[in-house]
Structures are given as structure tokens and as C-alpha cells.
Amino acid sequence: MEFIYRKRNILVNGKVGWVAYDTEFVDCLNDNITIYRKSDGSYFTDGGLTTFNLDCFDRQLDMPTWREDGIVDRICKRYGCEIAGDKEELRALHGSQLIQAIIAIYTWMNLRE
Fold first, then answer.
1. Is-contact 15 39, C-beta < 8 A?
2. In terms of Cα–Cα distance, which of 103, 108, 23 is closest to 57?
3. Looking at the DSSP assignment, which residues form a beta bridge with residue 34?
């Protein structure tokens, strides 16, 4: 089974800056999960979409937020990811780590409802 169904190059100033990998996995909105790899291969990221979705989800619930709960930090640690940058993007050295962390986070969101 192929998990990546499409690979796209994203140009930055006329050069490949990122490679996007569209997966067969779905997020909390039933959209396919896409991860991005820096063209130099230094890391994979979700571009901040997972934490954006978490913030939207938390506004709908009368519960501690994902930041207060700490579960996302624990999931990231478990799969070797980190939350980085102003957009609070998930980052990992390997795409498989990132995909596992994202799926675990969306699973937790579904169980929390």
C-alpha cells in the first residue's frame, strides 16, 4: 500500500524550496494530510496546520486546551517530533515520524469529543 499518493515541488524564488507529500491519511476535516520536506532534506513539517486545527477545535470545547493539557507535547516526544517556529509547526527528521505524530494527535482529538 502506498501512503504517499502525490509528490509536488513548491518553488521559492524560481527554485525548489519544499517538496510536498500528499498522503492517503485524513485530518480532522477529512482532508488528506500533507507534509512538507525542506529541499535540503533537513526536516519535514506540517506547516503549522495541525496546531491551527487544534486551536480551532479547542475553541469549540469547554475543556483545557491542547497547550494546557500537554498531550501534544507528549505525542511529539513519543514520535521524535518538535513544535517549532511562529506557526507552531510540527517538525521531524523523518516523514514517518511526522505522519505518526499527526495521526496520533487527530486520533486524540476524535476521542476527546
1. yes
2. 108
3. 22
3-class secondary-structure state, position 52:
helix
Spatial separation of the C-alpha atoms in residues 58 and 28, rounded to whole Å: 12
Q: How far, in Å, are 1, 61, 111 from residue 86 at the CA level?
A: 35, 24, 28
Q: What is the pTM of this model?
A: 0.89
The reported pLDDT for the residue numbered 113 is 65
Q: Is residue 84 helix, strand or coil?
A: strand
Give the tens place of pLDDT for each residue, 29-70. Answer: 889 999 999 988 899 999 999 999 998 887 777 778 888 889
Helix axes 95-112, 71-79, angle to 10 degrees: 150
Indicate if the pLDDT at residue 1 is higher than 50: no
What integer best gives the mean pLDDT of the chain? 90
Cα–Cα distances in angstroms (integers) from residue 90 to residues 23, 49, 52, in the given order: 16, 9, 11
